[in-house]
Write the C-alpha cells for this entry.
Amino acid sequence: MSAGRIALVVLGCIVALLALAFLAGGAVLFWAHTSERDAEGYYSTGTERFQTQTYALVSDDLEIGTEGPDWLFREGRLGTIRVRGTSAEPGEQIFIGVARTSEVDGYLGNVSRARVFDLEFDPFAVEYERLPGNSTPEPPQSRTFWAESASGAGPVTVRWEVAKGDWSIIVMNTDASRDVSADISLGAKVGYIFWIALVLVIIGALLAAAAALLIVFAARRRPPPAPATPAATPEPVHGRR
C-alpha cells in the first residue's frame, strides 16, 4: 500500500473516532432529555442538608456571561434554575432568594455568614467558607432587590430565569436569626438540550460517512494497467526488378 493510501486510512480512523464521540454525546443527551427529568421538566439533584451557625448560607458567585453578548444571555434564554428547600428545624421558616451579588454583599456587609465554595452531589459533599461579622441583619423580606424569592415553613420553591451578570443564592431564617439549617434540592431546566443532541447526532453521522468514504477510497484497488499493444511490423517493400 502506498504512503498516500496509508495516510487516508489513518485520517479515516481519526474521523471515525470523532464521529463516535459526537454520536455518543448526542445519545447521552437524548437519554437525559427523555428519562432524567422530573415531572416539571427539571434535571434535579437529591435533597441534602445545608447548615451553618451563622446568619445566612450564600452560594459562590454565579457568573453568567459577563464577557458574552447580551442577546445570548438574555433573561431565560439559557434556562431556569430551581431551588427548593424546607427548614430542618420544626416550626422554623426559611427564606430563599436570588439577587445580584453586589446587592447581597451590601445587605450582609458585616454579617457573619457561610459561603458554599465547593459542592458535590454524587456523593454529596459540601465545604463552607465562614465570613466573620458582628452585625445583625434585617429580615430578608424587608429588602426589595431580590430577582426571585420565597419564604415559609416549606417546601419553599424559587424559580429563577438565568440572566447575565453576577448572582448569588441565599438561604436564611425568615426572622434573620442564627443557625440556618435547611434541606435543599437544586434543579435546572434547559430547553435546548434536545436540539444540541440532534446537532451532535447529525454531525456524528456526517463524520461517520466521511470516514467510511476515506477508508473505502484508500482500500480500493486500482485496475491493473492494460497490456501494451505490440506495434505493427511494417511489411517489407520489394523493389521492382
Observations:
- The chain has three helices and twelve strands.
- The chain has two domains: 3-31+194-219, 39-190.
- The CA atoms of residues 99 and 147 lie 5 Å apart.
- Residues 3-31+194-219 form one domain.
